[in-house]
């Protein structure tokens, strides 16, 4: 890598310096990867959960393998040669959770959140919000979608060590973007539904093999999940995925959509969304068309809320907000003016207040109810117009 380039990153921005925040809730957080099935019809997810503190616990890498670095460079910069540089800068960053940490039992069960990533992302790039929610007593399953919208992903074929990678795919020449994305959003929402079914299977005592970590037994979840309290959540493409999942699966009681990219959803479906949605928008991303679609949902359901966090950009709701170094932020365009920890606090507190209300939780998350009305520092109701860079 170009040493001048690296020196311009400045001190404190080299590998391992990504400062992802610890969860602020009362629980320690553990994390494991789960892959089921030997075909692309299986599932791949990273699980965040309340765990018991254990001495000598290791922290997982933020970018799980070098293949992800290469594809991230290709997707964000359209320059694959940057992957070595990205590896140097962010390849050794770790997430402040216990890798394969012992699950903390809970007699009445933790509520479950299925989380859907954005376009060109993958299962680990929302570790800050997933960790935060797990620290407040949720099990969070961050999917890695196999619809060619992840930067890259893979599945393990039957037989030792045979991996098949599923690359990111741009809209094919001559194809209308809506039709391409609409097909993807339906596949993604189906994967959210299949993830919920997976947890129902585990809860009912069926033996489910995690082909990645036989040493972390999924059966520990049995009796520790409250599957009457399940929500679906996502960012950008994942936000609209969460909305569609409500249509497909009655067990999802509500959805939280972070800066939802509403474009891929067909108009026919808006009247069909049966449950409340919390739309948390950033200041710089949304278009009037997208906001109009959100308002269509809120006009049909008084419990659906739309708020905007001021001083934020689209990437403020991802882990990239916590990357140090001016150059990195220039590359990813990740800098809002609001402190990323403050932005994360607003997002998670509004989410917790909303989940308390619609999952009937017996917590004190209603202390943050004002945020749902867009009342508070750096929050406004609805969405500011005419600021979009789309």
Low-confidence stretches: 1-16, 386-390
Integer tally of domains: 1
Provide the residue-averaged pLDDT.
Answer: 89
Architecture, according to CATH?
Answer: 3-Layer(aba) Sandwich
The portion of residues forming beta strands comes to: 15-25%
Shape: globular
Task: Determine and state the CATH class.
Answer: Alpha Beta
**Alpha-beta classification:** alpha/beta
Strand order in space, largest sheet = 3-1-2-5-4-8-9-10-11-12
CATH superfamily membership, which one? Alpha/Beta hydrolase fold, catalytic domain
- Give the termini separation: 32 Å
Helix-strand pattern: HEEHHEEHEEEHEHEEHEHHHE
The third-level CATH topology is Rossmann fold
Enzyme class: hydrolase
InterPro entries: AB_hydrolase_fold (IPR029058), PAF_acetylhydro_eukaryote (IPR016715)
Active site: 236, 259, 314
EC number: 3.1.1.47
Topology:
Layout: H1 3-9, E1 28-36, E2 43-51, H2 66-77, H3 83-90, E3 98-99, E4 110-116, H4 127-135, E5 139-143, E6 152-157, E7 162-167, H5 177-203, E8 225-235, H6 237-248, E9 254-258, E10 277-282, H7 288-300, E11 305-309, H8 326-332, H9 340-358, H10 369-372, E12 379-381
Parallel strand pairs: 1-3, 4-5, 4-8, 8-9, 9-10, 10-11
Antiparallel strand pairs: 1-2, 2-5, 6-7, 11-12
